[in-house]
Amino acid sequence: MFLWLALLTLVNTVPVDEFKKFINEGDLGFDDEKYLLQIVPGNINPPHKYDKIDDIQLSDIVEQNNEHYQSFMTYVEKGFTSKGLTFTIYDDNLRNAAIALFRLLQSVEIGELQRISAWARKNVNKDLLTYALKITAIYSNKNKLINAFEYEPPYIMKPNYFINGETIRKAMQIIIDDGKFNDQEGEVNQFYKTGDVIAINTNYSGWNLASNGCHEELNYFREDIGINSYYSGIQLLHPFWMSNSELEEINPKHAEYYYFVHKQLMARYNLEKEYLKIEKNKSTEKCFTDYNPYLNYDNGLPFPIRSSTLKDWNEEQARIKSIDIAIRECISRRVIFMDNGTKISLTEDNYIDLLAKILRANLDGVKSAKFIRSFFGYGGNTYPLDSYNPAPSVLHHPETSLRDPVYWYLLQNLLNYFNEFERTLEPYDISKYEYDDVKIIDARIPKITTYFSYYQLMLNKGIKKIDPMKLPYTITARLKRLNHVHFDINFTVESKTESSVVVRLFLGPQCFDENCWVLFSNFFELDCFSYQLQNGINNIIWSTHERFSKFSYESYYNMEEQSNEINRYNLFKFPASLVIPKGLEVGLNLSLFVIITPKEEVFNIDMPNDLYINYRKLLPEEFDRKPLGFPFHREGANFKPFANNYRFFNITVFHKKSTTNAKGYFSNHLN
Fold first, then answer.
1. What is the C-alpha radius of gyration for the chain, rounded to an integer number of angstroms?
2. Contact of 164 with 238, CB cutoff 8 Å
3. What SS3 class is residue 411?
4. Residue ranges of the domains in the chain?
5. What is the fold of 2-150?
6. Rounded to the nearest 5 degrees, what angle is found at the Cα of 269, between the Cα atoms of 264 and 275?
7. Mean pLDDT for the chain overall
8. In Å, how far are 16, 172, 216, 322, 399 from 11, measured between CA atoms?
9. What residues form DSSP beta bridges with 438?
10. For residue 661, what are the contacts with CB-CB under 8 A and spacing of at least 6?
11. Which parts of 124-273 fold into alpha helices (H)?
């Protein structure tokens, strides 16, 4: 964001024509009509290149006998693509319109796509178009598209889906007042001006209410802008409306990835609860309270409050329950009957793939997902299941779902199906993976410290009709986010040969020897990477601040720091700031596990080039043929405390509290 400040200083000194030329030559795209800035790769034509063509019709760009054109136009003519509608992928008409546009964009060349996009920007719902473009970027060979959103957080363009509504309201009032306010007003309303930046202190939901002793102490994690952005990217890789067969053509392991990502999210969430068990001596497992998201839609309506009560039993609930019973029956009998009568046995080798596909099709399919998200998203409040709703619940958007505690209960219920089948299996033999050519001698683990750091995200791009040529200041939302002091772990490893190996690191709750394998589902994978060992003593260094291929780093967009580093943000990678769970002032004891195994040849499966190129590069690199999450993919046995190639280490995470908040008030649990 240092580029933004630099540009603001240029506005008053550079003639307009020269300013346009400067922007179009570099890393910024420029909208001639509205003077809106947006970050795009320098090798892409500015996204509004064709916007001057006012009278163009879609039929002038695409052949009218194109089946995708015909399908999309039926939704246009019925008004389902109208500007001003609140877009959600769980509304049947809006979703089908977005899919029709995606199929149209997927079928044309890049030149036509740019012209269609220019037409759509003037005639189609903005959020619907954005979704269609993102899906097209992933499921096509149009490389120029993917970079346009992969490296910019969605909270920059849509901040009202990520931060409290009162912050957005204050920002709009500041604009109305031309950025002028007295110090007393600013202190009361928690906004401050430093130079040409106006920062608005931003809390999380429920900050102004009395504590209910339940979920609010973890809202900094559930409502973190980084993890919610990441989850929106995950949902793009696994669209609930896309069939298993289509996804399997693109990635035969898509079902395993779908399961693994959600398992990892739950493991990380459970680790965040560890400090509460000691500091507060309580659990949030049986907390059922209302949830107020504190978010507002573009149309001014608030996101609905989810009631903790549930509606009376109805046919849809009965249908979901029947699906649940049928799946559990399959697990109990260890067999699945397909629609064509084929019988497939559930085995140790295929259960993750088959169960994940069954759950996607039956509980996260179009009809079921729509009901489940409405039923749990609104709670006991009335929900319009079959009609357009201008204010859907947080569960109706991937980028807001994780905010609600009830969604984490739903994720755990999803994972329970896998756990139920795993209980029918004998623990696997981990001794089979011992590797005597490598010996882990020692690990030097420094003091690990967490703290809440300030993060300022720019609101200018996310608030409509802001002209940066006329607005001489930047407005930011200033949050407190969990972070940690960067650290390095040094592993001393002795190797008998020169060899390529795979190193896996996991973080889990405090445990001892065999007991750790009982808690396998609570271990979070910190990293999995290849390493070239030399004959003799090796020093493997793992750092939390240099794993660009594994994590997403958001400091480029943090105006609090104003660093000059390059953009390391990635929508499809877990946020680096949340890798380590919150510690305690006296120290939180956790377990670190490391295992080193030989690198194996990975068999690449031929896939259609038109679907493979962009999608595949978004997935993590594979170094062997072991299950995702190995060795904590399920319960293991025959663990040896002093095996050469794997080891548990006790680690302690400390938390550094800040009792005074510079410039403003933040919730006490954010110290």
1. 26
2. no
3. helix
4. 2-150, 428-463+481-670
5. Hemocyanin, N-terminal domain (1.20.1370)
6. 135
7. 86
8. 8, 22, 43, 63, 34
9. 495
10. 671
11. 126-138, 143-150, 154-157, 165-176, 183-189, 219-222, 225-237, 244-250, 254-272
Predicted confidence (pLDDT) at residue 9 exceeds the cutoff of 50: no
| pLDDT tier for residue 11 given thresholds of 50, 70 and 90 | very low
Burial of residue 25, with CB atoms counted within 10 A of its CB: 0-12 exposed, 13-18 middle, 19 or more buried: exposed
Residue whose C-alpha is closest to residue 560's, from 485, 476, 486, 484: 476
State whether residue 219 is helix, strand or coil: helix
Average pLDDT over every residue of 78-98: 97
Question: Which residues are within 8 A (CB) of 235 and not within 5 positions of it... i.e. 6 or more apart?
Answer: 398
Contacts of 110 (CB under 8 A, 6+ apart): 142, 144
**Assigned CATH topology for domain 428-463+481-670:** Immunoglobulin-like (2.60.40)
Does the pTM of the predicted model rise above 0.85?
Answer: yes
CB contact set of 256 (below 8 Å; sequence gap of 6+): 352, 353, 356, 627, 628
Three-state DSSP class for residue 355: helix
Say yes or no: do domains 2-150 and 428-463+481-670 share a fold: no
Name the amino acid, one letter, at 445: I
According to DSSP, the β-strands at 524-533 and 499-509 are antiparallel
Could you give the C-alpha distances from 665 to 201, 295, 561, 585, in angstroms and in order?
8, 20, 20, 21
Q: How far is CA 595 from the centre of its chain?
A: 27
Q: Are 215 and 289 within 8 A, CB to CB?
A: yes
The most confident of 276-280, 365-369, 399-403, 602-606, by mean pLDDT: 399-403
The arithmetic mean of pLDDT across residues 347-353, rounded, is 94
pLDDT over 50 (residue 23) = no
Rounded to 5 degrees, what are φ and ψ at 184?
-65, -45
Query: Which DSSP symbol is given to 52?
Result: T
> Is 163 in contact with 220 (CB distance < 8 Å)?
no
The answer to whether residues 303 and 297 touch, using CB atoms and an 8 Å cutoff, is yes
Q: What is the longest distance spanned by two Cα atoms in the chain?
A: 75
244-265 b/e (C-beta count within 10 Å ≥ 16 → b) = beebeebbebbbbbbbbbbbbb
Residues 87, 80: Cα–Cα separation, whole Å: 10
DSSP string over 24-45: HHTTEEE-TTT--EEE--TTSP
- Distance between CA atoms of residues 45 and 118, nearest Å: 12
